[in-house]
Amino acid sequence: MNFYLLTASAICLLASCSTQKDPLKGTREDFIVSGTFKTDPLLNKKSITLPAALKNSSWPTANKNLNLKAQEISTLRWEKCIGKGVSSGLSLMPNMVANKTHIFTMDTTGNISAINQTDGKDAWSTRPTKHDDNTLAGGLAIENDTLIATASSGDITALNTKDGTQLWQINVESPIRIGATIHAGTAYILTISNELIAVDIHTGKILWKHQGINELSAILGGAEPVISGSTVLVAYSSGEYYALNTKTGDILWSDTLTAALRSDTVSSITHIVANPIIDNDTAYVISHGGKMVATDMKTGNRNWQQNVGSIHNPIVIGDFLFIVSDLDELICMDKKTGKIRYAVNLQAYQTTDKDKKLCFSSPLLVDGKLLITTLQGELLYIAVQDGKLLKTFNTDQKIMYAPIVVNGTYFLLSNDGILTSYE
């Protein structure tokens, strides 16, 4: 997510922007950050192996960890308004998802639309739950022909993707800020009260619940649960994360990320907002409070930890992790040791208004290049090997999230509720 909720009474800030103080005046000559993190020069000798680029035909959840096959963005195909966008209140744009033929969106009033990927025309539109203005998001997820929509009202709704018919709806009596994770017919849904709820997507029956420690001070948004085999990994705003049995909710192991030593209250919030990522039986978990750990999925033991904080989803490429940190750095880190190959100051890539700080999205890997978007509407293509800027494309729109890439086509959703399709 891209806004901070600092207290339960809701003071909101742009989340992708760093919470650090304004940088000191002075000449900055090198785009490599040498004073923040200690880099290991030996890692530069280790090649970064890129996976084969895949032309994925769907985008069922909010996050992808693939080398997506698509040309660099260049040509606008179509654009359309999906409904109401972000206002001056506390609203957020919920995430987009896609199947082979349609993009599914939800505006800030809860209106859900199925949009043809080819021409941008609506196939159907519905508003299954009543939202007040300035809703605090929710989200979408797909499995087969079922679309699961979550809402800040606590509603969970199942829709038929073909015509928008409502299959069922339940209310869990706690606001939901993010989309579900669906696996094998079960939706795993996290509420703001740190409760994970497993729901049968065919019937709406609640299968089990798990309760974490409730936390009053948190970031707006949260981490979507991650599935690995018969284990679901859930991360809470308290800094806790649990490995649970997908069928029963039984605890396999747990751990907690405490905050690194910070000088201000905001930076010490331990909320895990970035989605954990699981690779080769290792879970990588990062918190806003300045801690990242690699944890053995079988035992729960930590392999390493680093004082790195972020609210953005990391990605794995070969033997390396790539993270957009809370200090606006692109960090390349050895996934086996946690040692840092490079840390790049992304603010140095400002090409528009030099007096304004850029706000960044989570990274994607597209045709072997890192793609990071800015709230100011820029798409940054960055070299994987050294973090150098390769190309910038300006959309002239405010964009919270990285695009989704389906069938080689980019789809971006602006804060104003404008969905654009690019080749």
Q: Might you state the CATH topology name?
A: Methylamine Dehydrogenase, Chain H
| Number of structural domains | 1
Contiguous helical run count: 0
Superfamily (CATH H level) name: YVTN repeat-like/Quinoprotein amine dehydrogenase
Uncertain regions spanning at least 5 consecutive residues = 1-21, 27-35
- Give, in spatial order, the strands making up the sheet with the most strands: 3-29-30-31-32
- Biggest sheet statistics: 5 strands, mixed
Q: Mind telling me the CATH class? A: Mainly Beta
Strand residue percentage: 35-45%
Can you tag this structure with a few keywords?
Methylamine Dehydrogenase, Chain H; four-stranded antiparallel sheet; five-stranded mixed sheet; single chain; disordered N terminus; 423 residues; 35 strands; mainly beta
Task: Walk me through the structure.
Helix content is 0%, strand content 39%. It has no helices and 35 strands. The chain has a single domain (3-21, 40-422), classed as Methylamine Dehydrogenase, Chain H (7 Propeller), CATH 2.130.10.10. Mean pLDDT is 87; it is low at 1-21 and 27-35. It starts with a strand and ends with a strand. With 423 residues, the protein is an all-beta fold. The protein has strands spanning 3-5, 12-14, 67-68, 76-81, 97-98, 102-106, 112-116, 122-126, 138-143, 146-151, 155-160, 166-171, 181-183, 186-190, 195-200, 206-211, 226-228, 231-235, 240-245, 251-256, 277-279, 282-286, 292-296, 302-306, 315-317, 320-324, 329-334, 340-345, 364-366, 369-373, 378-383, 389-394, 404-406, 409-413, 418-422.
